[in-house]
Specification:
Elements: E1 9-14, H1 25-33, E2 37-41, E3 46-49, E4 55-59, H2 79-82, E5 86-89, E6 100-102, H3 108-111, E7 117-120, H4 134-143, H5 147-151, E8 154-157, H6 160-174, H7 179-185, E9 186-188, E10 203-208, H8 210-216, H9 218-234, E11 238-243, H10 246-254, H11 256-271, E12 275-277, H12 283-289, E13 292-295, H13 299-306, E14 311-313
Parallel strand pairs: 1-2, 1-5, 5-7, 7-8, 8-9, 10-11, 10-13, 11-12, 13-14
Antiparallel strand pairs: 3-4, 3-6
Helix pairs in contact: 8-9, 9-11, 10-11
C-alpha cells in the first residue's frame, strides 16, 4: 500500500473491539481532517481465552464501526513495509490478559518496531470517581501498568485526574527516577460525555463460579467472607453478586460439605445491606448497572471487559 505523494504523514488506527472505537474516534477524525495526513482505520481480530489460556472464539467487529468510514483489510496492510509515522492502539495487555488476546503482530511490543510514534488510547472507562477509593485504585493497579503503557510513546487520557493517577501508579512500579518519563508520555484529550453512565449507583459486580469453589474449597468461602467484609466496611459502595448457575447443579454432588458452606455464605450475602443479589437479570443487564467488575474468570469477566468496565481478577491465595 503506497502513500499518496502529496501526503507527508501516515497514521494507522488499530481498534480491536468495535463498540469501543468511540474512545479512539476523536483522534481518528482529527487525522482525517488533517490535509497532510493519511488516516488508515485497520480493525483487528481479537480472541477469547479459557482459564487455561486456550483460544475459544474469534471476533471481528467490522459491522460495529460507524457508517461512512473506510475500513482497511488488516491482511492487506503491511505495517513493516509501510512503517507509518504513527500507530494508535487500544489493547493494553499484549498477551497478559486472561480473558482475551490479539494476534502477536498487533501487540505493542511488536508494533513499536514499525512506527516512529506508538500512541495508546485506553478503551476501558477508568474515571476519577472510580479511582477515588482504595478498591478503585486497586483496580487501576491492574489496568494501568500494562505492556502498552510501557511500550507507547504517548498515552492519551480523558482527564487530568487520570493523568496524575497514571503517573503515580507507573512511577510506583518503575521507581521515582522514572517520574519525568511518565509525565512526558501523558496527554489529556477532550472528555466525551456518555449520558446515563455517570448516573449509575456506585456498584461493583462480583462473581464467583463453581470451578473456583471446587479448586479452592474452604479458601474460596473465606475469600467470599473477606470480600463481604470489605464492602460492608466501605459503606458507599454496593456489591452486585452474580452467582454461577452451575453451582446449584454441580456442587451438591461434587462436595456436599462445601455446598453447605457456600449456602451459609450466600445467606450472609442476602442478609447484608451492602449486597444486591442478581435476580433474574441477564449478564448483560447486571453489567449495565455496574461501574466495575471484581471476581473469578468467566462469562461475567469477559463480557465486563468487552463492555469497557474496569476488571480485576480475584486472587484467593
Amino acid at each position: 500500500m503506497e502513500r499518496e505523494g502529496c501526503l507527508k504523514k501516515e497514521a494507522v488506527f488499530l481498534p480491536f473491539i468495535g463498540r469501543f472505537f468511540n474512545t479512539m474516534e476523536p483522534a481518528y477524525r482529527e487525522a482525517l481532517a488533517d490535509e497532510v495526513t493519511r488516516a488508515v482505520l485497520l480493525p483487528v481480530r481479537y480472541y477469547d481465552k479459557d482459564s487455561e489460556g486456550r483460544i475459544t472464539a474469534e471476533h471481528f467487529d467490522m459491522a460495529e464501526y460507524p457508517d461512512g468510514y473506510n475500513l482497511y483489510d488488516h491482511n492487506a496492510y503491511d505495517l513493516e513495509a509501510c512503517h507509518p509515522d504513527e500507530i494508535y492502539i487500544q489493547n493494553p495487555f499484549d498477551d497478559t490478559n486472561p480473558v482475551f488476546t490479539v494476534e502477536s503482530r498487533y501487540m505493542s511490543e511488536e508494533l513499536r518496531k514499525y512506527t516512529e510514534k506508538l500512541v495508546y488510547i485506553p478503551y476501558f472507562k477508568l474515571t476519577d470517581e472510580v479511582l477515588s477509593d482504595e478498591r478503585g485504585r486497586s483496580t487501576a493497579s491492574y489496568f494501568i501498568p500494562t505492556p502498552a503503557a510501557v511500550n507507547a510513546d504517548e498515552i492519551v487520557l480523558p482527564t487530568e485526574g487520570l493523568r496524575r493517577t497514571y503517573i503515580e501508579i507507573l512511577t510506583g512500579v518503575t521507581g521515582e527516577e522514572t517520574r519525568e518519563i511518565w509525565k512526558n508520555k501523558m496527554s489529556v484529550a477532550e472528555p466525551r460525555e456518555e449520558p446515563g453512565r455517570d448516573k449509575r449507583d456506585n456498584i461493583i459486580l462480583f462473581s464467583i463460579n463453581v470451578s473456583v469453589l471446587l479448586e479452592y474449597e474452604e479458601a474460596a468461602i473465606e475469600k467470599m467472607r473477606e470480600v463481604l467484609r470489605i464492602f460492608e466496611e466501605a459503606g458507599d459502595v454496593k456489591m452486585l453478586f452474580s452467582e454461577d448457575p452451575e453451582i446449584e447443579r454441580i456442587l451438591p454432588e461434587a462436595n456436599m460439605v462445601l455446598y453447605e458452606a457456600y449456602c451459609a455464605m450466600r445467606k450472609e450475602y442476602s442478609a447484608s445491606e451492602a449486597v444486591m443479589i442478581r435476580n433474574g437479570e441477564t449478564v448483560e443487564e447486571v453489567i449495565a448497572k455496574a461501574k466495575a467488575f471484581y471476581g473469578a474468570p468467566g462469562k461475567e469477566m469477559r463480557l465486563s471487559t468487552e463492555a469497557g468496565l474496569p476488571v480485576m481478577q480475584m486472587n484467593i491465595w
